[in-house]
Design brief:
Elements: H1 7-10, H2 36-63, E1 66-78, E2 91-104, E3 109-120, E4 128-139, E5 143-150, E6 183-192, E7 195-203, E8 229-230, E9 239-249, E10 252-262, E11 267-272, E12 278-284, E13 286-298, E14 301-312, E15 314-328, E16 337-347, E17 359-368, E18 376-384, E19 389-400, E20 404-415, E21 430-438
Parallel strand pairs: 8-12
Antiparallel strand pairs: 1-2, 1-21, 2-3, 3-4, 4-5, 5-6, 6-7, 7-9, 9-10, 10-13, 11-12, 13-14, 14-15, 15-16, 16-17, 17-18, 18-19, 19-20, 20-21
């Protein structure tokens, strides 16, 4: 569902107490100017990338590479004016995400390339390009070797992806933290009857993306990504490591991992620019993290659990999310399936946790319409049990024929205190519609 609001972004208590740092003027992000030169500077790289994507399509058709993917037009309508006059109003954007795949079946090898590009009307930080996947895979009976840029997802919960640690969040895409940047890696999987062990070497760190000065759904003050700091002297060249064991035992699917490296969740420290603008500066600490995820399915029940223990980013702490989904098949004799979801979130840091999910309850429902258009509806609310605030979410999708898909997303925020993690986005309720064409 994507209610994970990455509270490092949203909670002022996430900021480390530190002296304000003066930043050099040359690296300041200047206000948007509407002139021909600036317009060309912004559009030219996107034209180059678009031409490169077209070249990939032509090459794929000429060489027998399997080409899939989608292109989408998105519109966001905000219900209120922005809290900051520098932020944009209603907004439109264009997204392109092709996927090229080639397989040598007799050799057990394959190559995957997934570039991603978005051009955004109002936020220059959201206009960006990324390589989501560019990897080679060699598969054997009892092992797999995966090299290159990839995306790896861990977790089972609906409302918060607590244990997902390998890839960095592409936060300008969506605050639900489900969109991830591609991560360079070498991954060896040993596949045995008693379980699978994955070893990861992760060279090169990806910094989290944040909305720009004109962007919505951002902190106040804004985050200055140009001056990010690191605990490691190697900065973004630090090499991270992870190992994970996973196994399916009857109706139980379990995973346990250990991660050593740079935290994907930055601390936000206060600083000032040369023009005396107050800013948040991301700081990336080195951490060790142990994570567990488990999914037990029995009949109409699906029981979900995720937990982690982290050291190295402030004092050691633990966090967990646990809950269930109960599915009613053919509600009241209809063809519709109704899933009821409940999840509880806890964090040993309590109210001092720099995230939304420290003592919160999620409740929601999922409707599968079981029609030819594969229509889906998901709705829910995350509520702070101490009366701090609530986050309401609605997601729906409907296919239009074989190639088109319409998606709706609505998010509403309720904040009762200035210290609430949701206070920054109190004026950013929105309804989003995307029309996508698949190929």
């Amino acid at each position: 569902m994507g209610a994970d609001l990455s509270a490092n972004l949203l909670n002022p208590s996430a900021c480390k107490d530190s002296p304000l740092k003066r930043l050099p003027r040359d690296d300041l992000q200047l206000p948007l100017r509407f002139d021909i030169q600036l317009l060309w500077e912004r559009i030219y790289p996107r034209i180059f990338i678009a031409l490169a994507c077209v070249l990939c399509v032509i090459t794929a058709r000429a060489t027998g590479v399997k080409l899939t993917g989608s292109i989408g037009v998105e519109g966001r309508l905000f219900t209120e004016p922005a809290a900051d006059l520098k932020q944009h109003g209603h907004n439109a954007s264009l997204r392109l995400e092709p996927e090229l795949y080639y397989e040598w079946k007799e050799r057990g090898e394959s190559v995957l390339f997934t570039p991603f590009m978005r051009i955004d009307q109002g936020d220059r930080n959201r206009t960006h390009f990324d390589v989501r996947d560019l990897s080679w895979v060699k598969a054997a009976a009892e092992w797999e070797l995966r090299l290159g840029v990839r995306r790896v997802f861990w977790g089972v919960a609906e409302s918060n992806h607590l244990v997902d640690v390998i890839n960095q969040t592409d936060l300008v895409e969506n605050i639900d933290t489900e969109d991830k940047l591609g991560q360079p890696m070498a991954n060896l999987a040993l596949i045995k009857p008693w379980g699978t062990i994955d070893f990861f070497v992760l060279p090169g760190f990806r910094e989290r993306t944040f909305p720009g000065r004109a962007g919505r759904l951002r902190t106040a003050p804004r985050v200055d990504t140009a001056h990010a700091t690191y605990e490691s002297p190697a900065r973004d060249n630090h090499v991270d490591f992870a190992v994970r064991y996973s196994h399916v035992i009857g109706e139980l699917d379990i995973g346990v991992y250990e991660f050593w490296g740079t935290s994907r969740e930055p601390e936000l420290r206060l600083g000032r620019s040369a023009s005396n603008e107050l800013l948040f500066i991301p700081h990336y600490a080195v951490i060790a993290q142990t994570g567990v995820d488990a999914l037990y399915t029995h009949g109409s029940w699906a029981w979900k659990f995720e937990s982690l223990f982290r050291s190295g980013q402030g004092r050691d702490y633990g966090a967990m999310v646990a809950g269930f989904e109960y599915t009613l098949v053919g509600v009241v004799g209809s063809r519709y399936d109704l899933g009821l979801l409940v999840e509880y979130h806890a964090d040993t840091r309590g109210r001092h946790a720099p995230q939304v999910f420290n003592d919160d309850l999620f409740g929601g429902f999922r409707v599968g319409f079981n029609d030819a258009a594969d229509s889906q509806l998901l709705a829910g609310v995350v509520t702070d049990l101490h009366g701090g605030g609530s986050f309401y979410n609605v997601e729906a999708s409907h296919r239009l024929g074989d190639r088109w898909k319409l998606e709706l997303e609505a998010r509403f925020f309720s904040s009762n205190r200035v210290t609430d993690p949701l206070h920054f986005v109190r004026a950013d309720d929105y309804v989003q519609v995307e029309l996508a064409r698949f190929f």
